[in-house]
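Troubleshooting log. The previous run stalled partway through. Resubmitting the same two chains, unchanged.
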Amino acid sequence: MSPHPYAFLAVFAVVAVAFPLAALGLAQLWFRLFQPAKPGETKNAVYECGLAPTGDSWIQFRAHYYLYAILFLIFDVELLFLLPFAVAFTALPAGALVAMLVFILMLAEGLVWAWHRGHLEWK
Amino acid sequence: MSDAAPPSPEITDAERAELRRHGILLTSIEELYNWGRSNSVWPLQFGLACCAIEMIAASMARFDIARFGSEVFRPSPRQADLLIVSGTVTKKMAPQVVRLWNQMPEPKYCFAMGACAISGGPFKQGYNVLKGIDRYIPVDIYIPGCPPRPEALLHALLTLQEKIRGQTISGRGAPRYLQPDAACDYPVPEFGAHDLEPPKNPDVWRPPALVRREGA
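Second attempt completed without errors. Output:
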């Protein structure tokens, strides 16, 4: 009886879980046997490049920043596709030009929308 | 043969070399532990002055500190084993250096690289320069030079590796961090109005005392 064609996936999963668990367990065992814990006030403090830490490290960033990420993507994607388009411009048929114009129009529409909503103004 | 001494359980180096020639490698956990530790000393990515340029040169292709397992300069003290105090420590910078040292996990080692880190060097008479980082941090290896060449840094690393290989896990040869009652937090000095406060850590460094003998 031949093994199931996907049996290697099960083996892979078992090894992928067992190997790090063994390594972590060994490290924990070593810690228990030999290594006395040495916590300290400065050692446990938040790392701020050596400066005295101020506040907690678990600060939250405002979710509103997603708009800037999306605005960046408009220019990023535009550049990504415009460059090969410009390089191959002379050899392209008219259909490609129309397709590219539609593509740019869609991106520009997003930019116009953001501009209209006032997202481009720094607050 | 009844009066012959019983065979010693200890294996001499000659016997071990003989076994190794036949392809048998004998080792102990301690040796394996030290071998692994001494060949993966990760320095903190931390430069202070011109010595740091030499440190960077040591990490690049010509001198290639990677040959000794120390190419992984960590940008966080949490992952670093070695603090290379590479350059002039101003009094404004000293608290940061000591705090970084405190934030490194044990076992950790410290190089005082160059004349400035050892003693203040050419700026020893300056009002704003710490006269040796060993006033706050226990230094393992001093690297003289102004600045020391990358070879000197590599030599210091090899010397540190020798030191690590000589440490034991338990008993009298055990390093400080393996002793349960040894402290690990070094007091971080404050940048005061006139000098660092305190100006030194007396547990680590005491000024050399001049003893005058009568009639001398």
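Takeaways: The two ends of chain B are 63 Å apart (CA to CA). Chain B touches chain A at residues 76-78, 95-97, 99-100, 102-103, 105-106, 169-170, 177-180, 184-185, 188 (CB under 8 Å).
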